[in-house]
Amino acid sequence: MDGRNAGMASSSRSSKKEGRTAFATGGYIRRFQTGEGGESRKGPYTFKEISNWYATGQLSPEAFLWKEGMAEWVRVGEFISGYQEESSFWVGVFGMLSSLTGLSPIERFSLKSIFKGVFRRRTAQERIDFFTSGGSKSTPALEEISTDWPSPWLFTRILALSLLICIGWRLMFEAFNNAPVVSGAAYLGLLFSISFAVPFSILVLFAEFNVRRNISWYSIIVLVLGGGILSLIVTMILNELSGNPRAAYWAGPIEEAAKLVVAIFFARKFFLNGQILNGMLCGAAVGAGFAGFETAGYIVNSEYTGPGPDPLDIAVMRGIFAPFGHVSWSAIMAGAFWLAMKKQRQNNIPSILQPSFWRIAVIPIGLHMFWNSPLLYKSALLYYAKWGICAVICWSMVFLLLNAGLIQVRQAREHKIDL
Question: Whole-model pTM above 0.85?
Answer without folding.
Answer: no
